[in-house]
Amino acid sequence: MIVQILLGALALLAAVFVIALGRQAVRRREMAPTLEAVVLGAVTNFFDTLGIGSFAPTTAWIRLRRLVPDSSIPAVLNVGHALPTVAEALIFITLVKVDPWLLGACICAAIVGAVVGAPIVLRLPLRAVQAVVGAALLAAAASFVLKNLHMMPGGGDALSLPPQAFAIAVGGFFVFGALMMCGIGLFAPALILLPLLGMNPVAAFPIMMGACAFLMPVSGFQFLGSERIDLRVVIGLALGGIPAVLLAAFVVKSMPLETLRWGVVVVVVYAAATLIWSAVRPAKAVAS
Length: 288
Fold this sequence. Notes:
76% helix; mainly alpha
């Protein structure tokens, strides 16, 4: 029953979000997506469905190509990847069985974290955004390295958690939801925390995807009203991402990702270094 309620609520939320996104795009005259954003959305969401995560590689490419100002990166990530993540969640919540109470509690905690975090991010100065996103990229790169070196927690076979571990997971997802508003992807920390608590790593997929699928549209309503967003890139990420999710989930399903992770590490570390340098370098003197 809980799962059916979550799926119905998610479908309704996605429909409302599409309407809000469309209206805002018409109002701002940013209806036409960029081809580069469509391709970027397809590639990043394809590998996101397989567990790589979309935030770090998307941020690295956006930073490399200067697609949007640095201050717009958190909004573009959360709004642009929202609908592909909804597609992921609908698939994995339906196909992968997990304790519905844990699923619902982690989703609610992540939503609350996002609601708390989004207004803070919208008020952050540019240098703070650059520093936070740069640090997030370094953390993502570290998680890729640990995964490739087989140093990530292996997890157990559990599909549910005892009360103490349950509470830790819920608290963790509150924090993850808040951090996502800064452009820090939820997948990597979730794939560390839940297996550490003894869960089957596969069972983490519907929980982390469900949490992201709810919190990204919820926070997206706040980001849509901000000037720190480019809806041409957002729409491109969504249009490219949704079919890529379906391809990854139903056709490819799994593939060796170790070589790809090493490549992502190089690009992500470069983008992180440039962001952090932008945050800490002295301001240019203004001619009088």
